[in-house]
Amino acid sequence: MFRRTLSVCAASALLFSYPVAGLANDSVSNQDDTYVVGFNEVLDLDVIKAAGGETTQTWERIEAAEVEMTEHEAASLASHPGISYVEIDKEVNVSSERSLKNWGLDQVNAPNAWDESVTGAGVDVAVIDTGISTSHPSLDVDGGYSAVDYTDSYDDDNGHGTHAAGIIGANQPESGLLGVAPEADLFAVKVLDENGNGSLTQMLDGIEWAIEEEMSVINMSFGTLTDSNAMKSMVDKAYENDIIVAAASGNRGESSTSSNRVEYPARYDSVIAVGAVDENNERAFFSASGEAVELAAPGVDIVSTYTDSTYGPLSGTSMATPFVAGAFALLKEAYPEKGAEALRTILQEEAKDLGEPGRDPRYGYGLLQIPDFSDASVDDNKSIPEESEDEPIEEPKEEDIEDNLIGEGPIETPDENEEISPPADLQSNVDYNDDGLIEVILSWDHTEDENTSHYQIYRNGEAYEQVNETTFIDFDVEPGTYTYEVTVVDADGTESEKSETVEVYVEEHEEEDTGFSWPEKVNNSPSFQDVDDDFWAHGPIEELSARGIITGSDGVFRPGEPVRRGQSLAMIGRLLDWDDTPVDTRFPDVDDSYFGSGFIAHGTAEGYVSGFSDGTFRPNQDITRGQMAAILGSVFELSKTIEDDRFSDVHDNTTGQSAIGYLAEQGIVSGYDDGTFRPGKKLSRAQFASILYHLGEHLIEE
After folding, report:
1. Is the whole model's pTM more than 0.85, yes or no?
2. Catalytic positions, please?
3. Are the C-beta atoms of residues 265 and 301 closer than 8 Å to each other?
């Protein structure tokens, strides 16, 4: 079964991605794969059955199901109006790196909490990972669940989950090993296998179990670069149930620069994204940066529990995350009356500011600091971990750790003798400039280190160019078909294997007339019984209808319904007189029977929009305000380069950010009274018609 690999601790195929994230696969497999299918409103298994799929399980909280079906059946199902998304099952895996030291507890002030009798007692913490070693002498596992398909046991057969659990709640003072919340109740939720790999569906099962069992805190030291509607819905449900969710931001950072590489689920608003720092409170070179980072915590050379009753050090944002999960366990005990949002605010305000003043992409609000709990009401008579006067706590020594070396860690720091990993996730986009020049834009994923010298670009199998960044632009390309690969070259001149190959087809392209004018009015243009004269968008709807840009159906326009991908391209295509001849597109869910197939073929060929990673286009999926701005910005080349902070929720990494600034500056779009733009909010048909009309008027005035 084909499953896409997700890296641990992203970026997903956006609705209108720019640049286009590669070419779709023209071949359609008849092999059954596992998909997650989400419904707009009510889960309807008959729809899945009618498409040829077989439902294997459901998640009613998010109106989604796990379905076995072929790629063709999935594409067909994706075009059903009741379907919100169809996602192929993906793999997740852990991410950590090995080293020595044990220093994080003092750095986050954990012992001060114990002095106030706050130890996390009675707080249920779910460690969603590879499981937890139930026989480890430093851990008490209160229960758990296995979502993997080869065992019902939640015992750890990898070591990663046990390491995370020890950072949260190890409780063996005589050995010198304590967690942040040593009396928290640990629950092992096994969603990753012995190799640290798992699937999206397994992760959904694990989070759902944690919700049903009313956990207080969830720790997820893994992640993926691929966005998922199902994943977002499930972590949102957990947060709605007042469960704190902490997740690793990812180990895809860059050594000297800040980049937006925070992975999912950490990138979602309902999740606390955790970055890693070293003993000097400097960002670990591997720790991902981005606007989503909320807190930083110790993540380099952290000694904790491991398999077979051993201890050892690992590094990674996977290690930083359980410090934060443990801190929330302490807060839940100290302030049981406070909800998840209030507790989250406490740690944001208590954080030790690092880097740039205020919240920044490298450290978030700053280094995790456990607050003063002198005002908390807790049981003073319970057993508190403390140093014995007769037998001093024995700190783990390097030689002791060497006796129990962690063998194959989930991810190890490469040294000079290890094989160089090739670049991953090579993407391509063709840019047809107005002056007639054609460019091929390549981008790939690779975490640079001090031993990386450069990247070697291969075109049509031959060495072509060398670059120092993870992007490359092939300028002034002639029409034709090209193949590209990329390798990594280290300081000694050693070259990695080639990346995956991408094939790029460059079409003939003529310079276009960039002037804009309204299409001629048509005869017998429709009027709509559900758009009254006093309706706020009556004028734009009437004008676009008169020019054949919008048509409606059966005498109604349905102005309040969300506008869909196919509909938006059809309206833009009619406005700009694109070829509307029905065609079988390269997308299996858009053939010549779909009313907007010609417009979709044109829009994708021009690079204005792209399909999804599974090869589908999903013409019936709703678009958001941000995605609307992104496609209008791409089609009409709308860009605002001046800094604009008028919307508090529009940042450099927001979809359509530049076009949003342009449209707002021209008065074509506006925000809400609270100062937000809400780029993730769905856009109605009436709103899209109004924006399109006023943009056209503005272009004519220009």
Report:
1. no
2. 129, 160, 318
3. no
